[in-house]
Amino acid sequence: MAALVCRDVDVDETKPDVSAEPNPFGDQRETRALPSLSQAPPGNLGGTSSYRRVAIGRVSRQEVAETGSDARELRHTLALVLLFADLSALGLSLLLGRYWSEAGPFAGPLAALVLVGCPLLGLCVLGGYRWGSVAYGNNLFSIAVASLGGALVGLVAHKLVLAAYGTTGIAVVTPRSMAWVLGFAAWAVLTRSIAGRLIRRWEAGWAVIAVGDEADRATVAQTLTRSRLADHLATIDPTATDAAYQLDALIAKRVRCVVLPSARTDIDVALRLALVHARLAGVRVLRLPDLVEELEERVPIGAVDTWWMLDIEQLPAAGSGTYLAMKRALDLLLSVPALILLLPVMALTALAVRLTSAGPAFFTQTRDGLHRTAFTIYKFRTMRVDAEAGGARWASTNDPRVTPIGAFLRKSRLDELPQLWNVIRGDMTLVGPRPERPEFNRMLADRIPWYDLRHITKPGLSGWAQVRYPYGASVEDAIAKLEFDVYYVKHASLGFDLRIIARTAAVVLGLRGR
């Protein structure tokens, strides 16, 4: 790996290098003299200051980029390597297994395509090729579900395609086919585990420089600790007289990024020039909310100010007409068939609720929807009919008001099935922030900043907060879930929606509901 191009600078403090800030108004207003980075920090003994400074030239910018401070190309490389490895494994298994078909090794290109494509699509939707999921997240369970589910769907689709070609006598469930499904799932988990370990070992050698007050530096440290990247954290107090020189010295080493304070606080001119110098040399300079978004896929509400909102170019969940139209089409495409297919399950569920506790099978309640417009939500009743005799309150873990059958319905999420009707009507969508009761919304909006951001999109049957955070029953839980909801509002896309739907299926299959 090429070393950084650095320059030793010896400065005579008796003749400081002073530059004038350009006047943006073009008139005769007085310009303010700015100290350049070649000035020595005060208190230096001997009259000179020697520090290392990254040269800003084409060669040095290229070398800084090669060190990995800009990880965009590496992220693409990781996805391509994992995709090539999965394709190789699937291709080899097909050659050795002869498609588990009695009709010979080839019964049509489409049969091969669905058998290979379904597992890859499952991994893609659940983040099997995403840098964050592989390197930082505890996503191995989702990857296992994606590979298993995708392989099983591929087998069924493979049989249907072969049947369309006139091939008969092909069994889907055979010892060989099940060995292939389990083998591919093990392969997917193993390759992601190895890749994640290698990435974390590689990234541990790169410093993250946190610039800010004690609270900001502590937040950066906690974020990196949760992502297992805290081994090489360097901190700089922006009020220190030699802060610019500390930054210059650190930039000459292996640096992943520089994290600035969460709010746009005033930073010393010399330190700002050092940050510009680092940026021009190819080092990433980002704010604390951006770091948390990148590593944890949530927006730290406590670190968000009005400037953060003004910096957002677009909120697709609220303003993209094309995305909203595609989202509505996806809602109808999935919820109408699902409601029809699940009618027998819903009938049995309603009967079980009626037989195991007194009261109606269905439960209705007023919730806030898009822009806080009230609508009626439908659910299977999971609590006693007198559950709120003393007033509205959140459900809690092991809530005594929950009926025995209600506990199972909550864990399996079967109590939410009637809300498919809300989705078809347009009150809700398949993916979005969960709708809350008006009385709770009023209380939370008074206590939590930016709380109403979750109401600029339709509420969802499932959401990013639901698959990432356990069931909450307090203001603190509401804040934590809001951070995931705001991340969804900012990054909403059709691919993100499909990813959440797939993870919801994993939650339901694992009975990890509330």
Biggest beta sheet attributes: 4 strands, parallel
Distance between the termini: 50 Å
Estimate what percentage of residues fall within beta strands: 5-15%
Overall pLDDT: 76
The secondary-structure class comes to alpha/beta
| Strand count | 12
Query: What is the alpha-carbon Rg in Å?
Result: 28 Å
Order of adjacent strands in the largest pleated sheet: 6-5-7-8
Please, how many helices?
20
Question: Uncertain regions: pLDDT < 50 for 5+ in a row?
Answer: 1-52, 65-70
Q: In percent, how helical is the residue content?
A: 40-55%
Overall outline: globular
- What is the total domain count? 3
Would you write up a description of this structure?
The chain has 514 residues and is of the alpha/beta class. The strands form five sheets. It has a four-stranded parallel beta sheet with strand order 6-5-7-8, sandwiched between helices. It has a two-stranded antiparallel sheet with strand order 1-4. The chain has helices at residues 58-66, 72-97, 109-125, 131-135, 140-164, 175-203, 214-226, 243-251, 269-280, 288-296, 306-311, 316-319, 321-341, 343-356, 404-412, 419-425, 438-447, 464-468, 475-491, 494-509, and strands spanning 6-12, 18-20, 33-35, 48-54, 207-211, 233-236, 255-260, 284-287, 362-368, 374-380, 429-431, 460-462. It has 20 helices and twelve strands. The longest helix has 29 residues, at 175-203. The protein is globular and about 75 Å long. The protein has three domains: 72-202, no CATH class; 206-299, Rossmann fold (3-Layer(aba) Sandwich); 317-385 and 395-509, no CATH class. Helix 2 (72-97) runs antiparallel to helix 6. 51% of the residues lie in helices and 11% in strands. Mean pLDDT is 76; it is low at 1-52 and 65-70.
